[in-house]
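[step 3/7] inverse_fold.run input=structure_tokens len=603
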């Protein structure tokens, strides 16, 4: 058996990375694509490796000469690489296809070793490697039968998003028997080149062949093995993440802050949402309105403040909608200016990061549960006065909760001392206590120093539309923030969500009830794992102390072996103990995490 690698392309979409080198010379985690592939092929004692070169072909040959590959390498030059596509490169190698069985590769695809092994070891003689279609994939797809017969080859121009459940993506790796090449592929390849031209893809020939009976080619389905096709710098970034070592991969995900739809197999237990909301009908309504929302401008600040006021039951002049709570926190911090700020650590770092360290006064909650009460807060900050006090309830990451009656006592205490109390209720809806929010006109009027912040993204499970609100009877503060943020700070999807949210209030209440029940079940299951100490929580996450193992090792193992991403808290807490934070997701996801955690043994 031999291998043929098509490596003539210019890779123009990779920009400066291919200005002086062909595409397969691009590095993924400091190793070129061609070097990785050649070393993978070395293990199979192939008779030869045929490489079709073109753009920067001599540089590629010179580089390969430094790799000391033991398998014989033969080069074929495509002199018109800039005017042809990969069908012509394969056409130039057609005589080699007729010599023996062939593994066919494109040089811009990276895959783990098991991908080649699955193809090489399969007893079937002629195969196209395919994977179940996912949203990141682009290009030729196929439909296959239950017995892996390729029913149809569908080029990108005929792709239909409504049919994705039926699609498998070609991985651009094939195994052709000599007989198949001789009887079918090469004759049709030659005919296609002469009839249609050389500026198309060689998969087009397969498309013609699938219309015939009994040509002998079948699909070889992947089963979770990693691969990625690299056409541009975004592809390169994703591939570098998928194929990074354990330490680097964790750091990459930690610094991405989201965008995980690029990794469809990833199970995200790090970022915090509501798995039971929004309901399907609401999603259908937003989907039906998508063309209008995508092509029309959103309203300005005035109308979006009106929508926020309607949804939260406060006067329009007392509330502002933001592009997530983070935008409002930034503007709020600009308004508070040079005054001293009080924080309770550990906490959500967006607040203290906006305050100068010299102006920060920190109350440290402590071991074992990082719990504290309103009385603890009042006692500490009576002794250490501040002009603005930030309280998150329930807190993040501890999940500590202060009952509403005590929060009102805290607001009264702050009012008497002219302390601006910033109360973040982003996780309050998940608490067991009913009607615990302070969002109402009367409360704001009673406590003019009170500022309420809420992330709709977290509680409503819609982080992608970036919504948050801030409310206060301090209309000077609210007016400042409205002027400080951009007039179009809410996009059309966020505005439409606020517009229709009122119709789904019963669904939201039902989702929260279901969520609380699942949280109780999930926490009970976690408590059954010997090396975990589960802290009390009223939020949509739980903080756990690890016994006998490091949080870093557990985080790396879950991500690299199981594609589960969690929050490592040990550095944040900084007391020498080991902590993680787990989001509370839906039942199936939670059960998967529990099963994996039970497999892990203390170090």
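[step 3/7] decode complete -> sequence:
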């Amino acid at each position: 058996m031999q291998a043929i690698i098509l490596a003539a392309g210019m890779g123009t979409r990779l920009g400066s990375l291919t200005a002086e080198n062909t595409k397969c010379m691009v590095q993924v985690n400091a190793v070129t694509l061609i070097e990785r592939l050649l070393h993978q092929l070395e293990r199979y004692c192939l008779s030869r490796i045929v490489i079709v070169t073109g753009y920067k072909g001599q540089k590629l040959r010179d580089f390969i000469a430094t790799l000391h590959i033991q398998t014989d390498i033969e080069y074929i030059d495509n002199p018109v690489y800039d005017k042809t596509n990969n069908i012509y490169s394969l056409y130039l190698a057609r005589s080699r296809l007729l010599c023996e069985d062939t593994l066919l590769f494109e040089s811009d695809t990276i895959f783990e070793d098991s991908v080649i092994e699955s193809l090489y070891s399969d007893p079937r003689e002629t195969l196209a490697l395919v994977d179940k279609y996912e949203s990141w994939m682009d290009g030729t797809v196929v439909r296959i039968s239950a017995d892996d017969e390729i029913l149809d080859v569908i080029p990108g121009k005929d792709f239909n998003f409504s049919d994705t459940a039926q699609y498998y993506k070609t991985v651009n790796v094939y195994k052709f028997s000599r007989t198949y090449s001789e009887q079918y592929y090469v004759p049709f390849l030659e005919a296609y080149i002469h009839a249609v031209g050389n500026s198309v893809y060689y998969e087009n020939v397969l498309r013609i062949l699938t219309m015939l009976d009994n040509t002998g080619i079948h699909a070889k389905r992947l089963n979770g093995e990693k691969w990625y096709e690299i056409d541009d710098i975004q592809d390169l970034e994703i591939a570098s993440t998928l194929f990074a070592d354990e330490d680097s991969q964790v750091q990459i995900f930690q610094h991405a802050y989201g965008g995980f739809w690029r990794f469809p197999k990833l199970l995200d237990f790090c970022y915090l949402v509501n798995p039971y909301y929004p309901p399907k009908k609401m999603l259908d309504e937003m989907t039906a309105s998508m063309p209008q929302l995508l092509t029309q401008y959103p309203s300005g600040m005035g109308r979006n403040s009106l929508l926020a006021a309607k949804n939260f039951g406060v006067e329009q002049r007392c509330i502002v909608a933001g592009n997530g709570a983070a935008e409002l926190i930034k503007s709020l911090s600009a308004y508070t200016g040079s005054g001293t700020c009080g924080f309770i650590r550990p906490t959500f770092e967006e607040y203290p990061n906006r305050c100068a360290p010299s102006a920060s006064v920190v109350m440290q909650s402590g071991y074992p549960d990082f719990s504290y009460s309103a009385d603890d807060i009042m006692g500490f900050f009576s002794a250490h006065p501040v002009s603005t006090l930030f309280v998150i309830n329930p807190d993040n990451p501890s999940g500590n909760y202060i009952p509403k009656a005590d929060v009102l006592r805290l607001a009264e205490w702050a009012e008497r001392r002219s302390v601006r109390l910033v109360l973040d209720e982003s996780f309050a809806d998940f608490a067991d206590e009913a009607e615990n929010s302070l969002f109402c006109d009367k409360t704001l009027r009673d406590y003019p120093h009170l500022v309420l912040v809420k992330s709709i993204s977290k509680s409503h499970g819609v982080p992608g539309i970036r919504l948050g609100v801030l409310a206060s009877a301090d209309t000077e503060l609210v007016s400042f923030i409205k002027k400080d943020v951009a007039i179009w700070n809410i996009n059309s999807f966020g505005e439409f969500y606020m517009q229709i949210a009122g119709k789904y209030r019963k669904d939201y209440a039902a989702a929260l009830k279901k969520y609380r029940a699942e949280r109780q079940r999930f926490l009970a299951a976690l408590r059954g794992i010997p090396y975990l100490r589960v802290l009390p929580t009223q939020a949509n996450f739980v903080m756990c102390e690890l016994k006998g193992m490091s949080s870093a090792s557990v985080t790396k193992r879950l991500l690299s072996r199981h594609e589960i991403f969690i929050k490592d808290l040990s550095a944040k807490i900084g007391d020498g103990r080991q902590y993680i934070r787990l989001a509370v997701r839906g039942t199936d996801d939670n059960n998967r995490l529990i099963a994996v955690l039970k497999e892990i043994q203390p170090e």
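[step 4/7] annotate
The mean pLDDT is 95.
The longest strand covers residues 168-176.
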